[in-house]
Design a protein that fits this description.
binds pyridoxal-5'-phosphate, alpha/beta, globular, seven-stranded mixed β-sheet, 13% strand, Aspartate Aminotransferase, domain 2, 470 residues, 16 helices
Length: 470
């Protein structure tokens, strides 16, 4: 094929229409999913072999193969990991961004996406009490958390680590239930295992903030300088929000950086009903919010908000003469403030949602998912066969089938989850809480309703009864 043919606009039009038609048909799974699987699980090795021998020639066949070999988030029986069910307009905006390929470090190369990066941050920062603040959009919560911690070190460390390297020992205090990427971030920064001081959780899986003082004192005695505390809003396993007010007060008292990892549940701030969960956010220095979790925007699209706009320039105090001048705070050259240099057009997909539907649409989505999780928790409590790990704060519900004394409950629940995966009618995951295996559901799909949840519990009961000794 010639390069001229490769870029032919009419071929693009034709195959683009085919693709959109196929995806539009696929979207009907929201309403009509009888007999359709959420996931058609095949082992990784078998999958590799299938792709290796696949006879795919046309774009249509290739695109269809991607669809057929993917998990279907739009299926209302998808209740697995916390990845959003993308809104069609957000996905179309993202698709446009892929062809324009105009995002990035410097304004000239990204006029729309850089300007809108500021605009969407300006629209949303006030919900977190950051009216005077600022923010960036970056590729994922993992990267946003690392960015926040690097900034915290630059602001709070007693030496100029960015220029001279570090000679002291530093740490962040964080709940033992925090997402593993916090641990990864402190190790990337060279703080080692001791760089993450894990605060135990109470029986509701919340950080025991009354222990902060004691752990802080102990670290100081050991010559470790605590630079800040990370609150989870919520934690990943159980979906429980930390007491952000208590953490905020502690940080103020000790002059520490307060970062909130609200990758999952930050958008509760947009909801009249659930914004109480984010109470205390206004005391934070920085907040991570994934738009690809509870904002219907495709992955990876993550906000990192800063309460003090100046701090957003302190993460990467670096000069690159070929990209930008030495002048300090150019809001429009985002490469100064993000880990990425070249960047995907991220702001345009959020702008599309905000401009077309307003922030209320994020509230509607979050309320729907959180309400359905509460309903599910009530159903579990009412059933004698199931045990609920903790009353949910969010759309994450952990529960287990109890069985009887003749079986190992952990084995039983592992088996249940494996069979559910292999059947493919539902997609749920599992987690380990205090050495107990729990089934874990995240209500990510706003079209998941009571009948689906009843069916799920019925299916689990069937599998369990087959597994129990007669
Ligand atoms: C999902 C999640 C992360 C990781 O975010 P990615 O966008 O997947 O990199 C970090 N922290 C919490 C609390 C999360 O829920």
């Amino acid at each position: 094929m010639s390069l001229e043919e490769l870029y032919d606009s009419e071929a693009f039009r034709k195959h683009g229409h085919e693709l959109i038609d196929m995806l539009a048909d696929h979207l009907s799974v929201i309403k009509d999913h009888d007999g359709k699987k959420v996931i058609d699980y095949v082992s990784p090795d078998e999958n590799y072999k299938n792709w290796d021998t696949a006879k795919l020639t046309s774009p249509k066949e290739i695109f269809k193969a991607f669809l057929d070999n993917s998990i279907h988030l739009h299926h209302p029986k998808y209740m697995g990991h916390q990845v959003t069910v993308p809104a069609p307009m957000a996905a179309l905006a993202a698709m446009e961004g892929m062809l324009l390929n105009s995002g990035g470090a410097i304004y000239e190369m990204s006029a729309a996406s850089s300007t809108l990066e500021k605009w969407v941050v300006d629209q949303l920062k006030g919900y977190f009490g950051f009216d005077q603040g600022d923010g960036i959009i970056t590729s994922g919560g993992t990267l946003a958390n690392l960015t926040a911690l690097i900034c915290a070190r630059n602001v709070k460390a007693p030496e100029n680590v960015w220029v001279e390297g570090q000679t002291e020992k530093y740490a962040f205090m964080v709940s033992e239930e925090a997402h593993y990427c916090i641990d990864r971030a402190v190790r990337v920064m060279g703080w080692g295992e001791a760089g993450m001081i894990k605060i135990p959780v109470d029986q509701h899986y919340k950080m025991r903030t009354e222990l902060l003082e004691e752990y802080y004192f102990k670290a100081t005695q050991e010559g470790i300088k605590v630079l800040g505390v990370v609150g989870s809003a919520p934690t990943t396993s159980t979906g429980i929000y930390d007491d952000l007010v208590s953490i905020g007060e502690f940080c103020q008292k000790k002059n520490l950086w307060f970062h909130i990892d609200a990758a999952h549940g930050g958008p509760a701030a947009f909801s009249d009903k659930y914004k109480y969960l984010m109470h205390g956010a206004e005391m934070a220095d920085s907040i991570t919010v994934d738009a690809h979790k509870m904002m219907m925007v495709p992955s990876l699209t993550t906000f990192l908000f800063f309460k003090d706009s100046k701090n957003s320039y302190k993460t990467f105090a670096q000069k690159a003469q070929y990209l930008w001048s030495a002048a300090d705070e150019e809001w429009y050259n985002y490469g100064k403030r993000t880990m990425e240099c070249t960047k995907i057009m991220l702001s345009t997909r959020i702008y599309t949602m905000l401009k077309l539907y307003g922030v209320e649409v994020f509230e509607a989505y979050l309320d729907q998912c959180y309400n359905t999780a509460k309903l599910f928790a009530d159903m579990i409590v009412e059933s004698k066969d199931f045990d609920l790990a903790v009353t949910p704060h969010s759309n994450i519900v952990c529960f287990r089938f109890m069985g009887d004394s003749t079986v190992d409950t952990n084995d039983l629940n592992r088996k249940i989850r494996n069979e559910i995966l292999e059947q493919g009618q539902f997609y749920i995951v599992q987690t380990l809480l205090k050495d107990k295996v729990y089934l874990r559901v995240s209500i990510m799909n706003p079209f998941t309703v009571r009948v689906h949840l009843e069916e799920l519990l019925g299916q689990i009961t069937l599998i369990a009864q087959r597994s129990l000794p007669k």
